[in-house]
Amino acid sequence: MKKLAAKGTHTNAINAVLTSSDVIIDGFCSNKCGTHGYSRSSFIRSKSPNFAYIWVSELPYIWVGNSETQCPGQCAWPFHQPIYGPQTPPLVAPNNDGPKEAPILEAASACSGIYGKGAYPGYAGDLLVDAATGASYNANGLNGKKYLLPALFDPSTPTCSTLV
Predict the structure, then answer these.
(1) Which pTM was predicted?
(2) What's the Cα-to-Cα distance from 30 to each of 46, 70, 83, 117, 123, rounded to whole Å?
(3) Among 35, 131, 141, 150, which is least packed by CB within 10 angstroms?
(4) Residue 126 — very low, low, confident or very high, per pLDDT cuts 50/70/90?
(5) What is the Cα Rg of the chain in Å?
(6) 134 SS3 class
(7) Would you call 113 exposed, middle or buried from its count of C-beta atoms within 10 A (0-12, 13-18, 19+)?
(8) What Å distances lie between residue 4 and 23, 60, 125, CA to CA?
(9) Residue in 126, 117, 34 with CA at minimum distance from that of residue 88
(10) 155 conformational bin, left if phi > 0, alpha if psi -120 to 50, beta if neither
(11) pLDDT surpassing 80 at residue 116
(12) Residues linked to residue 62 through DSSP beta bridges, in sequence order
């Protein structure tokens, strides 16, 4: 993953690697559903007979496996029934893409599994529910789109902060 992420040359970017359903990743499911980090990249910026400037940069990346086909009970929660823990019903995905939306949640959060106030393992928290579709969400987007976004860590309070 680090080698793949090091191929980027933009310094103000994050490389995102989303795994296709036909790619199997060693350790997926048993260890993790995705990861993040940074990779070092170096390349020569200018050449001359007497001088070569080598630029080394750190390129941040995220990698997310495909939980639609691999381990949905572990990596697609809250949009799929969990394998372990409380067996609460899975949520309806706001854009009706269930397991396809779960990898984005995995990649984005240091507060895994927390989407609304009162969350605990197996319960995503108190969320808004779309009356027409039954989909759970906590954020409104453009053109009526609804999203379920994970809580973010708030360093000023050392807790996970939710939208609802």
Answers:
(1) 0.57
(2) 45, 11, 12, 29, 22
(3) 131
(4) very high
(5) 19
(6) coil
(7) buried
(8) 15, 11, 36
(9) 126
(10) alpha
(11) yes
(12) 16, 36
pLDDT at 117: 93
What amino acid occupies position 77?
W
CA distance 29 to 69: 11
50 CB-near residues (< 8 Å, 6+ apart): none
Report d(CA 73, CA 98) in Å as an integer.
Answer: 12
* Residue 81: both structure tokens together: 């029934």
Residue 140: strand pairing partners: 146
Q: Are 39 and 58 in contact (CB under 8 A)?
A: yes
| Two tokens, residue 17 | 């690697």
DSSP string, 43-96: EEEEE-SS-EEEEEEEEEEEEE--TTTS-HHHHSTTSS--SSS--PPPPPPTTS
Cα atoms in the 13 Å half-sphere on the side-chain side of 142? 0
